[in-house]
Amino acid sequence: LGSSLRGTLETLQGKTRLSEEDVEAVVREIQRSLLQADVDVSLVMELSDSIKTRALKEEPPGGTSARDHVLKIVYEEMVAIVGESTEIPLEPQTILLAGLQGSGKTTSAAKMAWWFSKKGLRPAVIQTDTFRPGAYDQAKQMCERAEVEFYGDPDESDPVTIAREGLEATEDADVHIVDTAGRHGLEDELIAEIEEIEGLVSPDLSLLVFDAAIGQGAKEQARQFEEAIGIDGVMITKLDGTAKGGGALTAVNETDSSIAFLGTGETVQDIERFEPNGFISRLLGMGDLKQLSERVERAMSETQAEDEDWDPEDIMKGSFTLKDMQKQMEAMNKMGPLDQIMDMIPGLGGGLMDQLPDDAMDVTQNRMRSFEIIMDSMTEGEMENPRGVGASQVRRISRGSGQDEETVRELLEQHKMMEQTLKQFQGMGDGDMQRMMKK
Ligand code: GDP
Ligand code: MG
Questions:
Q1: What's the CATH code of the domain at 160?
Q2: Whose alpha carbon is nearest atom 26 of ligand 1?
Q3: How do residues 96-141 score in pLDDT, each as one tens digit?
Q4: In-domain check, residue 403
Q5: Where does the AAA+ ATPase domain lie (predicted)?
Q6: How far apart are CA 350 and CA 355, in angstroms?
Q7: Annotated binding site
Q8: pTM of the entire structure?
Q9: Which residues line ligand 1 (CB under 6 A)?
């Protein structure tokens, strides 16, 4: 999983512009990863469309590879759907947990209580599950392990009574976490019961607890709980298993809420606050996308801030001088050493690196550095009109920069190649240009 996405991205290496086929290929692999991770089909389609539109419309900034640019778009569009984590103020509040039987509510109640206690608050768990035999003992034990206050009543059969008495009994606590009963499926009885409990405790936060393996059933569940009590956030449990929890995205989208916590094991400490980057990277089976996205962002803004006169778009209209090439190289350097950028995408970095001779990356980087030094030794006129640089100037530049004449000629050659490529685009009508870019 994810490896074919990496494979597809590898084929984009070195491209500065993506064709429609390139974008289609990337989107197809993303779709595959997301569907395998149980993300809802219509959500996947929606996401595909927005990625496609942006990837074809927006141009990669100078010095940014098309691949990095498309990954940045993917990351941003995913964040838009996944959202930031649910805001949990560190103050007195009441939290109600809802969800089907076995989803992990009781475990999560104790985990959250543990989490709040570590933040310096005084939590209490109130167990209202009178449906499942053993629910009281289980909750009590978990709360002992978490070293947090617990209330339950094994002799009382009405969950609403337990909730009321529990709130009174634990009134010294800051944070009340109310655990509820689940059922095997969505039954009217369950919904009626949780509506009543909700009415009594009037929670500040109602969280829906999901097993990461929930899959496509998430939509209907989320809709019903949303209708009954209004869902403010989601907790995804059992993320320590193989399931990636993509169903939660459906729930978040359906309830217009966000993800609050992740459960990553059976002990009370196995709880994490949700954080979009890790979750998205995991869904796609990719490395740290946020870091990459931020680097592209930085390269963009720094290039722009430094030289307001320099606009990558101008290259398409006028001539491509050595100055333009210098700007592109500077922007690339700001993203950090090439091998590091590639390493941020595990598999991609590793895979491609293995295929290259050991010092291939070094050569590229050294060559770039030489080019920079050479350009520093060139006059303004030579930079503007590199075609006019003759043999005697090459000798002078070589001496001035301490670089071989051969390297100076390579730089001029490289510039000529880039200029010729760009020339093919110039002189076309806008329509031709767009058609060609979409190819
Ligand atoms: P409830 O019926 O919704 O209250 O669910 P429980 O809290 O009783 O959890 C059901 C089962 O899932 C129990 O065996 C838990 O130990 C297990 N469980 C809950 N959360 C996690 C988790 O994050 N990881 C793992 N591996 N198991 C979990
Ligand atoms: Mg339970």
A1: 3.40.50.300
A2: 265
A3: 999 998 999 999 999 999 999 999 999 999 999 998 889 999 999 9
A4: no
A5: 91-275
A6: 9
A7: 99-106, 179-183, 237-240
A8: 0.68
A9: 99, 101-107, 182, 237-238, 240, 263-266, 270
